[in-house]
């Protein structure tokens, strides 16, 4: 993906959770069918954790849910319940950003790919998702 790198801002519905993330203006977002993502309708792009920063007092409005292997850390706002980002099982060194929670104006293109979270192990082994949370040099 050859797209300029920009600073995106975003957060939850009530704006108690706000963040900024350095990422391309054109992203690959994953539409996952795992039990959690499919129920939430979450479609997300993954960035290196060092490119993601919570703003202000956002951390005091976040709660976390885990299940299964407890590797993924599903975060959401304690006030409005929106999950604007989380730490995915596929990329524990990264952050998955819900593309619909990015403020308008900085995302120029979103390529949506299917992620087979129902068959996670086989999908993960044949995907390139683990590279998404690596800092590009």
UniProtKB/TrEMBL annotation:
<dbReference type="InterPro" id="IPR011057">
    <property type="entry name" value="Mss4-like_sf"/>
</dbReference>
<comment type="similarity">
    <text>Belongs to the Gfa family.</text>
</comment>
<dbReference type="Pfam" id="PF04828">
    <property type="entry name" value="GFA"/>
</dbReference>
<dbReference type="InterPro" id="IPR052355">
    <property type="entry name" value="CENP-V-like"/>
</dbReference>
<keyword id="KW-0862">Zinc</keyword>
<feature type="domain" description="CENP-V/GFA">
    <location>
        <begin position="8"/>
        <end position="121"/>
    </location>
</feature>
<dbReference type="InterPro" id="IPR006913">
    <property type="entry name" value="CENP-V/GFA"/>
</dbReference>
<dbReference type="GO" id="GO:0016846">
    <property type="term" value="F:carbon-sulfur lyase activity"/>
</dbReference>
<keyword id="KW-0479">Metal-binding</keyword>
<dbReference type="GO" id="GO:0046872">
    <property type="term" value="F:metal ion binding"/>
</dbReference>
<protein>
    <submittedName>
        <fullName>Uncharacterized protein LOC107481038</fullName>
    </submittedName>
</protein>
């Amino acid at each position: 993906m050859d797209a300029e790198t920009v600073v995106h801002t975003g957060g939850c519905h009530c704006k108690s959770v706000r963040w900024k993330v350095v990422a391309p203006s054109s992203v690959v977002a994953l539409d996952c069918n795992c039990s959690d993502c499919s129920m939430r309708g979450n479609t997300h792009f993954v960035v290196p954790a060092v490119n993601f920063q919570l703003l202000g007092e956002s951390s005091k409005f976040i709660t976390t849910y885990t299940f299964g292997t407890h590797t993924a850390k599903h975060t959401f706002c304690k006030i409005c319940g929106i999950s604007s980002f989380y730490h995915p099982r596929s990329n524990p060194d990264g952050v998955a950003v819900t593309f619909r929670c990015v403020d308008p104006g900085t995302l120029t293109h979103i390529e949506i790919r299917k992620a087979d979270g129902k068959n996670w192990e086989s999908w993960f082994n044949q995907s390139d998702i683990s590279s998404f949370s690596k800092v590009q040099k």
